[in-house]
Amino acid sequence: MYKILKMEGRAKRAHMETVHGNIETPVFMNVGTAAAIKGAVSTEDLQQIGTQVELSNTYHLHVRPGDEVVKKMGGLHKFMVWDKPILTDSGGFQVFSLAGLRKIKEEGVYFHSHVDGRKIFMGPEESMQIQSNLASTIAMAFDECPSSVADRRYVQNSVDRTARWLQRCKDKMQELNQREDTINKHQLLFGINQGAIYEDIRIDHAKRISEMDLDGYAVGGLAVGETHEEMYHILDEVVPYLPKEKPTYLMGVGTPANILEGVERGVDFFDCVYPSRNGRHGHVYTNHGKMNLFNQKYELDPRPIEEGCQCPACRHYSRAYIRHLLKAKEMLGMRLCVLHNLYFYNNMMTEIRNALDEGNFASYKRAKLAGFEEYDKK
Fold this sequence. Notes:
The protein has 15 helices and 16 strands. The strands form 4 sheets. Strands 4-5-6-10-11-12-13-14 form an 8-stranded parallel β-barrel, surrounded by 4 helices. It has a 3-stranded antiparallel β-sheet with strand order 1-2-3. It has helices spanning 43-48, 58-63, 67-72, 76-80, 92-97, 124-134, 152-176, 199-210, 228-238, 256-264, 274-280, 312-316, 319-327, 331-358, 361-372; strands spanning 2-8, 11-18, 21-25, 27-31, 54-57, 86-89, 102-105, 108-112, 119-122, 138-140, 188-193, 216-219, 248-250, 269-271, 283-286, 289-292. The protein has 2 domains: 2-272, TIM Barrel; 279-377, no CATH class. By secondary structure, the chain is an alpha/beta fold. 42% of the residues lie in helices and 19% in strands.
């Protein structure tokens, strides 16, 4: 299912086979929270820009349209017309992000819906049932994501509960995958390492979950307030305690530079809302840094966002035109920026894989990071 093809230091170049197709890693998963990429990007667009894996959100799809609706429509792949792998996160991050709308107990989490205020209960079994209804390729275990500034005692109690929840997730998924009415009987389960910025709690938790022989392992609870240096330190300390022969996923991270640093530390899977969110605000990524297309200096600029880029925006349109669309609040401007950013991320992952194949990732990383700094100097 998952095979390491090459290593350079801790960096892994791997191939993963799933029921919905193969994944070449390292990979960036394009985030479609509610079964759509924000910015009017279709699944045909995702095919065109080289997307390998799409990521959707368990909590949001449970709230609307309802996971039972998705199941009746044949599962998420049929519903959104996407034939490649899909990863669904478990709803655990909403335990963190909707802090004012939830209450955590041993059995699970009680939410008030952010849409209509109705009460929702989600525990490990419910999360697995929802993800089974969605029929994603990879399901994430239900966890709590404690704040990076939470005190040690709170984090330890939270991590202990997350470990107990993981066993319940594993038991429930085994049961669901054997049911006759389950759409995807080959659904994979990834566990999540937590522990805020307490490296000893993280390492202990990594050891505990590694013994459970899951399909993959994620590092969660980073990029939630700690510094980049703290995040890199945690990865340095924790990744060696996760099974090397299983995929490693760094959740919710991040910038192109974060991804390069993560790959160097042994991470296979990444996801982040940055490329789509920034694109919707006219901020676009290039090999020379990030540009704000709202800037006056692009008003008469006939060049594409980036010379030589093969994305749908750069192949046809100028900076001046896209700036006009953004200023006029035309949705096309937002869409073109999102397409460019997602293409940039997906293409960077292809470059990373090629560099690992050729054994020159270290020099590739140096050159890429040096390029990103060019705009910072202007």
